[in-house]
Amino acid sequence: MKKLTTLLLLASSILIAQDAATSRAGSAERHEFAISNFRTESGVTLPRALVVYGTYGQLNAERNNVVLLPSHYMANFHGYEWLIGSDRALDSSRLFLVATELFGNGNSSSPSNTPEPYHGPRFPVMTIRDNVEAVHRLLTEELKIAHLRAIIGFSMGAQQAFQWAVSYPNMADRIVATSGTAKTYPHGVVRLEGQIAALTADAAFQGGDYTAPPKKGLEAFGMVWAAWLYSQEWWRRELWRGTSRAGTTFEQVMNGFRTRFAADANDYILQARTWERHDVGATPGFGGDVERALRSIKVPLLYMPSETDLYFPIGDARYEAAFIPGVSLTPIPSLWGHTAGAASNPADAKFLNETIGRFLSGGR
After folding, report:
1. Buried b (16+ CB within 10 A) or exposed e, 17-50
2. Is the model's pLDDT at 3 over the cut of 60?
């Protein structure tokens, strides 16, 4: 009975926290945008490509109060509510926020929800540029928005932010990238391939044509993920203690990662492939030269790597920042690894909101 009471109290506290976050952010509206005969960079044409997105606030008469929030790995459009509120960097009573969902997340067009001949493992690999092109059409054709106040992205959202800055250099006044780089370098590809290998080694995967979820593979995928998500010092200091989501013991934390990934396996792989292939240097006109592409960025860019990120190491950010003319390189002083860029704890949330808010107001 005591254990049940504890679980009920924990569930109640989580719901209260979620309700509070939603209240601060304001209510979001879900929308869908469909594109007929969408041609991907791989050469495959999807008969119907769907982009799911959410909006916060109201578009003003001049249509110039818009901020774009592109989603990160397997996230939905609620992934930036840590930034939204009257006391945060993005006040939806003044701004119109458009939060888009990446192809492959299970809501936008994905291996799991696309009919044959592109269902499951036959779904084409989508690039970050494919996602940017689809959202550009959403903004300009559907919403009739020609310009953005800002583009703010975390992780794969940061990848999209960099791509926007290169593909559409005059589209936004300002760019913010947290915990993400303009290119996925070989070490990042090796990490992602390790996760994919762990997932596909499960005999139940059956080359992607599974009849039931490859549970063992998903568990292995989660454990590989866990080793990279936080910093080594986060683990040594046992900073999961006191966070209801992670658990209070090491065993609970480990089990949480084993069971964390419960979505469609092909969707996880598709977005990992999207992640792997990201390179702004491969944008047409730059001949594969990432440094040249970075030099082409025209607008002020706030670059916020996490000091302890193992996915996108701070050294990669320093390398890239050297080529961006209007960059403000502002590392996040955190032990929370990759997650620091999405405000995974109160200190990082405060630092991000204050720094991004100041930048959007014209500061550096």
Report:
1. eeeeeeeebbebeebebebeebebbeeeebeebb
2. no
Q: Please confirm, yes or no, whether 309 is among the known catalytic residues.
A: yes
Taking the C-alpha atoms of residue 327 and residue 122, their distance in angstroms, rounded to an integer, is 40
Catalytic residue status for 289: no
Q: What is the pLDDT of residues 135-175, one digit of tens each?
A: 999 999 999 999 999 999 999 999 999 999 999 999 999 99
Which residue range is the domain that position 57 belongs to? 2-360
CA separation for the pair 331, 312 (Å, rounded): 12
Q: How many domains does the chain have?
A: 1
Q: Of these residues, 108, 155, 179, 334, which one is catalytic?
A: 155
State the virtual CA torsion across 47, 50, 51, 54 in degrees, nearest 10: 160
**351: which DSSP letter?**
H
Catalytic residue among 72, 78, 278, 338: 338
Q: What is the mean pLDDT of residues 64-91?
A: 97
Domain with residue 298: its CATH number is: 3.40.50.1820
**Is there a contact between 203 and 178 (Cβ–Cβ < 8 Å)?**
no
Tell me whether residue 23 is one of the annotated catalytic residues: no
